[in-house]
Amino acid sequence: MVAITIKDVAALAGVSVATASRVLSGSPATSPAARAGVAAAAAQLDYRPNAQARALRSTHTESIGLLVSDVRNPFFADLAHTVEQAALAAGYVTLLGNANERKEQQDRYLDTLISRRVDGIVVAPLGDGSGSIRSLIERKIPTVFVDRTVDGLDVPSVTTDSETGIRQAVAHLAAAGHTRIGYISGPQAISTGRDRFAAFTRAVAEFGLSQDPDLVYFGDFQAASGSAGVHALLELRQPPTALLAADSPMAVGAIAILHKRGLRIGRDVALIAFDDIEWFALLDPALSVISHSVEDMGRIAVKMLLEVIGGGTPESVVLPSELIIRASSSAPISGVPDSPAAVSPASGPSPRKN
C-alpha cells in the first residue's frame, strides 16, 4: 500500500505543498478557496498527518504515557481504564506500558515513551529511582507517580493511606479471636510493600497479637507468591488462623491454594485482601477487603499531570482506605466466643481526607 503524503494532497488540490501544510496545521494565513480545496483533497485521498513528524515541529504531541507495574493486576487494569478515559476527555491519547514488576522492563518502556515525545507520564514506579526514572526527572518531563513513590524524588503523587485500612483489618480479626495472623507482604523494594508491612507490624503490636516473624511471608505482588505464601504459612508448627494478603493478585493465589488444600475460607481460616476487585464480592464466601478508590486515583493523577504539563506544581494527594467486612472473615474463630472487649474496626481512626 502506497502511503499518501502531503505532496499528493497539494497536487490534487492544485496548491503548493507549503499552502497545503498551512491549511492542515490550521493556519489562518490561507484563502477560503485553498482551505476548501485542501480539505476536499485530504478527504478524497483519506490523508492522515504523520503524528511524529508534526511532533518534531511542535512542543506538544497531545499524548501521555501510562506505565503500570503489572497489567494483569485488576487494580492496575482499572487504573489504566480510568486514566485513559480521563486523558481522552482532556484531548490526550494514552500510550500504555507494562513493567511486569521488573525494573529493566520499566526502563525499556520509559525510554520508548521519552523517544515518542509524550507530553507527560503517569507511572507506578519500581526500584530506587535510578535508570529511566532518573532520566525523566533530569529531562524535566512532566511526571506524576501513582499508587507508589520513590524515596528522595520530589515528584507529585497520588497514593493511598494504607495505615487506616490495615489497622481496621487487624482490629476486626482480633475481635474475632485471632491471635496469629499470617501476612503475605509485598516486596520491600516498593513503597507500597514497605508501607503496608509497616502498618501491619504496628497493628499487631497495638492489639497484642503474635509478632512471630515466621507469620510474615514476603511475596512479589503476583499470584504465584500468594500461593507460595499460604503454603509456607500453613506448614508452620503453629499455623495462622487468619491471613491478610497485601494485594489482589496475591489474594487470588492464596484462594487457589486454600481451595486446593480443602480449607473452607471464612470457617477454617479467615482471609482479607488489600484492594477491592469487583468480583471479590461475588465469591462464595464473599471476600473481605481493604478498599481504596482506583477511580479517584486515576482521575486525580491525570488532573495533576495536566497541571504539571501546564507549568504548575500540584501538591501530592493521599487517598483513604477502609475495611469492608464480608463472609471470608466475619465468623469468630472456632472455640473463641465473642468478647465485649473486642475492638471493632470502627474504633480506628477515620480515613484521612485530602
Automatic annotation (TrEMBL):
It comes from the Bacteria. PROSITE patterns: HTH_LACI_1 (PS00356), HTH_LACI_2 (PS50932). Keywords: DNA-binding, Repressor, Transcription, Transcription regulation. Residues 4-58 form the HTH lacI-type domain. The keyword NADP does not apply. Residues 331-354 are annotated as: Disordered. SUPFAM superfamilies: lambda repressor-like DNA-binding domains (SSF47413), Periplasmic binding protein-like I (SSF53822). The keyword Repressor applies. Residues 334-354 have a biased composition (Low complexity). This is LacI family transcriptional regulator. It comes from Cryobacterium sandaracinum.
